[in-house]
Structure formats: C-alpha cells, structure tokens
Design goal:
Blueprint (H helix, E strand, L loop, with lengths): L2 H9 L6 H16 L5 H43 L9 H21 L4 E5 L5 H4 L2 E6 L2 E6 L11 H13 L2 H22 L2 H34 L5 H7 L5
Parallel strand pairs: 1-3
Antiparallel strand pairs: 2-3
The protein binds zinc ion.
C-alpha cells in the first residue's frame, strides 16, 4: 500500500482505530488542559464529536465517489472495448466478462429501483490492483473493481461483484458511517464522564463491537454472493479483495 493510500485510509476513518482513538485523545486533552468540568459541557462535546465525525466522513465519502466517477468509470469504459490485452486474459474474453458485469449492475439498479450505480477500475497501484469496494453518497452508488479481477482473477469477478452489490443493497456504507459517528460519541462520553479504567473498558468494548459488526456485514455479503453464484465462486478471494471498507 502506498503512503498516500495509507493517509487516505486514516483520514477517511477506514482504519478501525482512528475514530475512537481521536475521540479519546481529544477528550482527554480537553479534560486535562481545558477549564470545562461537569456533564453539561461534556454532552456538548459528545454531540459535537458525533456530528463532526458524521459530517467529516460523509464529505470524504462524497469526494471519494466524485473522484471514482471522474477517474475510474472512463477506465472501465476503455477496457470494456479496447483491443489491448490485460495480463493473461485475451481482450475478447475480458470484454465478455465486463459486458456481463455491466448488465448485472443495470439489472441490480432496476430491481432495487436505484438512481445510479456505476462500475469503475481504480488506478493499478499496489493498493488499487486488488481492490474491490463499494461507495455510496447522496443516492449515488459505485463499485470499484481492481485490475486483478479482470486479469488472472477474472473467473472470480461475478462473486466479487455480487459481494459488493450486497454491500450496496444492505446500505453498509451508511451503516458504517452512523456506527462510527455513534461510537465516537459514546467513546467521548466515556472518556469525559468515567474514570480512566472504565473509559478504557468502554472504548475497548466499542472497538470489539465495531470490528464484529464489520465482520458480520462481510459474512452477510459473502453469503449473498454465494447464494447468487453458487459455492464454486471463490469466497476466500472475496475476503482477500475486500479491505473491510464496504
Ligand atoms: Zn465486503
């Protein structure tokens, strides 16, 4: 993973520890150095943290989706028609796989009465090569499929696609947004109002609950993909492709 991709993950809260750590460090700093005591300012801090995290992550989500539409969709259109070969897969075979994928996305959009679902290919960086992720913002939805799944992993593409469409159907992007905002608010509340051991225990429990919720959504999407594609779709590859960023 490149340094910029790592920085983007940290800024967008894709790293599971970023939000609670920020909340706890911020609150601890306020308590030690600030003149504020008691629950009334504490409640304001909780509300401000929750709203700030919600706003911050939703803005970053919109930026990520705009960027994907601008950079990734044209790349998909290019490889869907261009006569260039990509790795070991002949162009004609790749065109067929990509055409079926697009038809499936159009069908998904129609069945679920959605406004917009697009497909794109991220830049072939070490981070983007094996990526498979879903984005959602303001009613728009997008699936990123890395070069790997059009190259030597092309036979896994249907199950990868179904996994990401399941994330969109379950609204996992929004769920994660609200989960992290609520978790940050609770972490601040614990760090503000409870003794350090209790606050640490609450934050630990929040982290475990967050990780468990993330894994549960991954398993649910794996099952949905398996139901759609059958058992031979390569479920292990889905887990490796998806970086826990629905
Ligand atoms: Zn996933």
């Amino acid at each position: 993973m490149t340094r910029s991709a790592r920085a983007r993950d940290v800024l967008s809260g894709a790293r599971w520890w970023v939000v609670p750590l920020t909340a706890v460090v911020g609150t601890a700093t306020l308590r030690v150095f600030g003149p504020w005591r008691g629950w009334e300012p504490g409640l304001w801090a909780v509300a401000a943290t929750t709203v700030t995290v919600l706003w911050h992550m939703s803005v970053l989500g919109r930026i990520a989706l705009d960027s994907a539409l601008f950079h990734e969709v044209p790349r998909w259109d290019y490889y869907a028609y261009a006569e260039v070969e990509l790795g070991e897969v002949p162009a004609r075979d790749r065109h067929a796989v990509m055409r079926r994928s697009r038809e499936r996305v159009e069908e998904f959009t129609r069945i679920h009465n959605l406004v917009h679902v697009s497909l794109g290919i991220p830049a072939p960086t070490p981070h983007g090569y094996a990526e498979a992720s879903a984005l959602q913002a303001e009613g728009r939805r997008h699936v990123s499929i890395g070069h790997r799944w059009l190259n030597r992993g092309s036979r896994h593409l249907p199950v990868i696609l179904e996994h990401e469409l399941a994330h969109l159907r379950r609204r996992d992007v929004l769920r994660r947004l609200f989960r992290r905002a609520a978790g940050s608010g609770l972490a601040v509340a614990a760090a503000w109002g409870e003794p350090l051991p209790t606050a640490a225990a609450v934050c630990g429990a929040l982290l475990i609950a967050g990780v468990a919720a993330g894994w549960w959504s991954e398993l649910a999407c794996d099952w949905a993909a398996r139901r759609s594609c059958g058992s031979g779709g390569g479920r292990g590859n889905v887990a490796r492709a998806d970086r826990g960023r629905p």
